[in-house]
Amino acid sequence: MSLPFVLVLAMGFLFACGIYLMLERSLTRVLLGFILLGNGVNLLIVLTAGRGSAPLTDGKHLSTVGMSDPLPQALVLTAIVITFAVTAFLLAMIYRSWRLVRADSLQDDAADLQVAITKIIDSEAEASTEYDDTEFGDEAESPIVGAVDLDQDGRRVDRRVAAYRDAAPEPAADRDAAPESAADREDKP
Amino acid sequence: MTELLAVLIPLPVLLPLLGAGLALVLSKHSRTQNVVSIVILSAVMVIAFVLLFGVDREGAQVVAIGGWEPPAGIVLVADRLSVLMLVVSSMVTLSVLIYALSQDASDDSNETPISVFNPSYLVLCAGVANAFLAGDLFNLYVGFEMLLLASYVLLTLGATAERIRAGVTYVVVSLVSSIIFLTAIGVIYAACGTVNMAQLSERLGQLPADVQMILHVLLLLGFGIKAAIFPLSFWLPDSYPTAPAPVTAVFAGLLTKVGIYAIIRTETLLFVDSSLRVPLLIAAALTMLVGILGAIAQSEIKRIVSFTLVSHIGYMLFGVALGTTFGLAAAIYYTVHHIIVQTALFLAIGLVEMRGGSTSTKSLGGLMVLSPALTIVFFLPALNLSGIPPFSGFIGKVALFAAGFEGEDWLNVTLIVVGTVTSLLTLYVIGRTFNLAFWRDPADAEEPTEELVAEFAERKQVLQAGRKWTPTIGVPGPMFWAATGMVVASLALTVGAEPLWNLSTRAAENLSEPLNYVTQVLGGDAT
Known about the structure:
heterodimer; B: about 75% helix
C-alpha cells in the first residue's frame, strides 16, 4: 500500500498548525486549531484506505482486487459528523462567552487565583513585619503606566493577581493577619 | 437464557436514547418527561442486574448488531467487567436523576432548564453504557463522544459566565483527548486493518515492538486525559465544581471511571505483550500525591473533593498497572467502591450547599447541630473515602496493597507507601473539612454566613428556654433520600464485600485470559 506523499505532508501540516493554534489563549484560534486538527485526523483515516478504485462492483466481477478499503470511509463519515457537531457547540460557547464577558480569551479560574493570592498575602504579612523600610507612601500620586508592578518589598507582582486583588472584596487572610500578628507580638515578646 | 441475554444487551444503550427522544418531544410537559426518564433508567437498572446474573452464570455474551457476524459487523460484548460497571453506573445514574429532578422542582431560580437536562442526561447514560459494552475500538470512540457531548451540555447548563469559563476548559481538553483517541484508531487501523478489539488482540501482538509502543502510548494518552491521570489531570478540579451539584456527582462518579475502564481493556486485551508497567506505576504514584496535596490547599468543599477524586484515580491505576489477576480484581473492586462513594459525597455536598448557602469552608459552620441527618450523610462516605476500617474503602485499599506485596518489587512497595500516605492525607483533608463546616460555631467562621449564625443562636435560646427546637430550613425529601440511597449502597459494599470481591476476582480472571475473549467474539476457530 503506497500513500500519496503530498497528502501525508498535508496531514502533517494540518496537525502542526492545529496544535500551534490550540496553544493560544484566544478562543477563536483554539476553535480554528480544533478544526484543522480534526481535518488532519480525518485525512489520516481516509489515507488508511489506500489507493484504489471505488469499492463498487457491476454485479459480474466480484473480485476486490484493486479496490480501496471502504471501511475507513465509513469511519471518517462518523468522525466528520462528530467534529461538525462539536465545532457548532464550541462556536456557540465562544459566542456566549463573548456576550457575557466581552472577551475572546480564556479566563483565569477565580478559585485558583484565590489560592495563589492567599499565599502571596500570607508571605507579605510575614515579610512586612520584618522589613518595614519603605520610604514611599502606599499609593503613588501619578502612577507610571506600563511600569513593572513592585510590591512593598520590591518584588515583582503579577498584574493579574494584583488586578484581581483590587477588584475582589478583601480576602479574609488580609484582615485577620495584621491584628493577630500584632497581638502575638504583644503577648509573646 | 442466552437468547434472552442477547435481546437485553443492546437495551441499556437503546432505551436511554429512545427516552432522550421522548423527553425532547415532551419538553413542554415536564412532569411526563420526568416520569419517562425515571421509568427508563429504572428499567435499565433492572436489565443491568439481569445481565449481571446471566453473564456471571453463562459467561461472556456477544451480540452482532445488525446481523453482520464479527469481525465484519459491530459487536457488543458483555463480559463480567462490562456488566458489573453497567450495574453500578445504572444505580448511580438513577439516584442522581431523582436527586436532580427533586432539586429542580424545589428551587424556582430556573438555573437548570429542565427541558434540556433530561434529554442530555439520558444521552449521557446511553453513552456510558455504549462505552462499557463496545466490542470494537471505533464503537468505544462513539460511546465516548456521546457521553462527552452530553456532558458539555450538562456542564454549561444555564450558561452563566462561571460555567462557560469552566466549560471552555473542559470542552477543549476533552476535544484534545478525543482527537488523540481518533488518531490512535486511524493509525491502529492502518497497522492492523481492523478495529474489532478481539481481532486487534491477535494482530497487535504481531507488530514490531516499537510500533506497538507508539500505538499503546497514543491510546493511553487519550484515555489518561479522560481518566484524569497526572500530569493530564489539571482540567478536572477547574471544571467540575462549577456545574450543578447532581451533574458534578455523576461526572465525578462515572466519567473518569469510563476512562479507567478503557485503560483496563487496553492493558489486558489489546497490548498484552507490550507492558508499560513502570511508567504507569510512577504515574499512579504522582496522581495520588499531587492530587491530595492540591486538596490540602483548597478551601472550597467541592474543589477539595474534586482534588481527592484525582488523587484516588491513582489507586485504580496502581491496580491496573500491576497487571496481575489479584491487582486487577482489587482495581475493579476499588472502582466500584469509588464510583458509589464519590457520587454519594457530591450529592451530600449539594445538600450542604442547599442547607448552608455555600460550600466554602471559610463561611460554613455548625451544621452538625443544625442538621444531624445531613452530617451523617456527609460523614459516612467521607470516612469511607479515606479508608477507615469497616468501610469498603479500607477493603479496596488492603486488597490493592496485598496485590502490590505479591510482586516483591521495590517500586510496588514505594507505591504502597505512597498509597498509605495519600490515604492519611485524605483523612486529614476530610477531618479538617468536617471540623470547619460541621463542628465549629458558625460565628467563628472567617466569613460568617448570617443565616447560619442567626439560626445557631436561635437554637441555643430555644433550648435554654427548655422548648423543642425544629429547624426552619429543610432539604427536599427526594434529594435527601437519593443521597441516603447512595450512602446505603456504599455501606452495602462492606456488607456484601465477599460476593463482590469474588465477582471482581472472576472478572479479573476473565481479563487475564484474553484468548478466551477472542474465541468468544470471533467463534471457535480463532486460536
